[in-house]
Design brief:
The chain is an alpha/beta fold. It has helices spanning 2-8, 13-18, 66-72, 96-102, 124-134, 136-144, 208-214, 229-234, 236-243, 249-259, 282-290, and strands at 28-34, 48-53, 56-60, 82-84, 116-120, 155-159, 163-168, 171-177, 187-193, 196-201, 219-227, 263-272, 297-299, 305-309, 312-315. Helix 7 (208-214) packs across helix 10 (249-259) and helix 10 (249-259) packs across helix 11. It is globular. The structure holds zinc ion.
């Protein structure tokens, strides 16, 4: 038990002590499908967060491996109601072509028969047109074989501007500008349902606008970047360049201290290194955030899930082994 508490971090002792009671009547469920960056990492796939609220299954960013992670989570691809992109960097969209091409195929889970609904910043139309062109000939051939229906070969796009971008069956998504240096626009999203709120802020450093739109959240999914103390001493210009547009542990702590979510989880975790200087450890990341923020937070891993209801936010049972496991499907390996 002592070891478990240490792993969870002293400030989340309460969360761990309460345990991982499954919540069958959760208002919202949030799953970290991918927590990584453009850097190849078998344990951290590309950034993507699944938010399930009422009848809606909303995907926020679609990085590398998103279709595989949904499969592991036993969420049929056809069930994704809409996809929201924060910014157009590759690590947020490289999973889209796979999602687009695979969801309409006939499987045990059924298939998508309607256009993918894609929301994102200025330029999202180019992404959609590019994917449709990429698969133009395969779609023609699969339609001839009866494997794909024509409506599913289209992507419906909506360019995101600050404000409410999506409302359906009681689920509301609001976009707001966050700060990522020269990459503009870059959006954070606030998802509200049944009196609860989830905030997702990828790829950003501290900004007053971020804080203003992120208060009173049940769960906040926040990015963070860290070079070890040793790297910061050896190559300050290198590390400070990234800290200019990604939240350092100290800035991440400042964001959380000012927004005060019931629980925060770090995803899109950038770990910098150079030859001879290792990446920062999880313990260093935790300690540096704790120095700026005394509230509850979790350092996220792929396929971690959180349930939100009137009792608060609960981390669902998790084992790192799930990242490498086939889902419970009937398919042969
Ligand atoms: Zn990114």
């Amino acid at each position: 038990m002592k070891n478990m508490l240490r792993k969870c971090g002293a400030i989340v002792t309460l969360l761990c002590a309460v345990g991982y009671a499954p919540l069958s009547t959760a208002a919202m469920k949030v799953t970290l499908l991918g927590t990584g960056t453009p850097i190849l990492n078998i344990d951290r796939f590309g950034i993507s967060v699944l938010v399930e609220a009422g009848s809606q299954k909303l995907l926020f960013d679609a990085g590398r491996g998103v279709a595989m992670r949904l499969h592991q989570q036993q969420v049929p691809l056809r069930d994704i109601s809409a996809v929201f992109i924060s910014l157009l960097n590759s690590d947020h969209i490289t999973g889209l072509p796979d999602l687009y091409a695979t969801a309409p195929l006939p499987t045990d889970d059924g298939r998508l028969k309607t256009p993918m609904r894609l929301y994102g910043p200025d330029g999202i139309e180019n992404v959609a047109q590019g994917i449709e062109l990429m698969f133009k000939d395969q779609n023609r051939m699969r339609m001839l074989e009866g494997e794909v229906v024509e409506p599913a070969t289209h992507i419906t796009t909506k360019r995101v501007e600050p404000g409410t971008v999506y409302e359906k069956d009681g689920v509301k998504v609001t976009a707001f500008l966050i700060e990522h240096g020269h990459v503009k626009p870059d959006f954070g999203y606030r998802i509200e349902y049944d009196g609860h709120a989830v905030v997702i802020t990828d790829d950003t450093t501290y900004s007053e606008n971020l804080v203003a739109h992120s208060k009173q959240a049940d769960l906040m999914v926040q990015s963070v970047a860290i070079g070890s103390r040793a790297l910061e001493r050896a190559a300050p210009d290198y590390v400070n360049h990234f800290y200019g547009y990604l939240a350092s542990p100290e800035n991440a702590g400042r964001i959380l201290a000012e927004t005060q979510p019931k629980l925060a989880v770090f995803a899109h975790i950038s770990l910098y290194s150079q030859p001879g200087i290792a990446r920062a450890t999880v313990d260093e990341l935790r300690e540096r955030v704790q120095a700026a923020y005394r509230g509850n937070f979790v350092i996220g891993e792929d396929l971690m899930s959180f349930s939100i209801d009137e009792r608060g936010v609960t981390q669902l049972p998790y084992s790192a082994e799930v990242r490498h496991k086939e889902s419970g499907s009937r398919n042969l390996p």
